[in-house]
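User: Can you help me understand a structure? I only have the sequence.
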Amino acid sequence: MSVLVTDGHFRKTLAVVRSLGRKGVSVAVGERTYLNTSFFSKYCDRRLIYPSPRQFPDQFVEFLLREIKKTSYDCLFPMEEETLLLLVKYRSEISRYTYFPSPDLEKIEFVRDKRNLMQFAETYGIPAPKTYYLSPAQSLPSWGGGEGEGYVIKPRISSGSFGIVYVRKREDLIGSYESVHRRYPFPIIQEWIPDGGGTFGLAALFDEASNIKAVFIYKKLRMYPVQGGPSTLREGVEHPQIKELGLSLFKALNWVGIGMVEFKVDPRDGIPKLMELNPRFWGSLQLAIVSGVDFPYLILRMARKEKVNPVLHYEVGKRCRWLLFGDILHFLNNPRRFHLQPPFFHFFDPHTSYDIISKDDPLPVLGSAATFFTFLYDPEMKRFLERR
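Assistant: Let's start by predicting it. Here is the structure, written out as tokens:
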């Protein structure tokens, strides 16, 4: 068995490499530079340097098509949104040579737009924050800005926490909106959901007929940026209400392949509110794997046309930590850094594993440092951060 995985920089890619490599699968990893996390893993059997998908998208696609035509891969795993968007345009051709489960491009583009997603959720009764779509911003929403309330300005298309601005005072809303609008045209304005109820992710896998094959729910315990962003520490949980809402949303979309939907529970009414839907693998994939929901291996089994019974239950209470460098950044930026629960310096908790650090496969720590280094000297990586 062999697979091809793109975007070697990322910890979720490393999770795929380790999961499949430990099962004897030959794993080829692609990236535009040798300085990336996954190339350092002992489970990476082939290292492919491809043209930059950001600078040279056509050459990147040509490279991947040549590679899958000449090498017999059981499955293709595009790990980042940019590579997914490029390759899904050629899904029909790619599927002649390897397994590539994914929604079509039109559906991916639809859910990436938060305006579309929120309006779709409203139609199907999925709770979401109050959302304001109109422009210009001078026509202010009639809610928010009171004591203990506020607004969140979000780009219609972005990932993680990039481009998001929190506004607590009504008089600051117009200026903040215009600032975001200059970089991300016509963002949405949402009510700020107070902290206290928890932020949760629901990850799911569907076959080509939109039948559920796996589901996993986790709670974000720490994030970076601190006020909201990718999780740096998270825990596997059960949450029947979020399970029902998340799967209902995917079912209404007739989803295919992998996806992750995020909810934030509103402490004022206890209702989970929809935040976003990611049509790709998510950063905390490793937690699902150690909890018993091995999404990469399930996809490979589907590729080999094996019978895959739905995985709907898993071990709860396990935690996974992105110490390098997410949780370190959370610690440095959190004013309550010495009062965190669980404590930051609780490094040897038997229920906590790590995204990158591993006794069995130690060298990706060096690869992670190399990836961090590229952001300091590589002009493309600098532009990538600035653009986001």
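Now, to help you interpret it: The longest helix spans residues 57-70. The chain has three domains: 2-100+362-387, 130-191, 199-354. Let me know which part you'd like to focus on.
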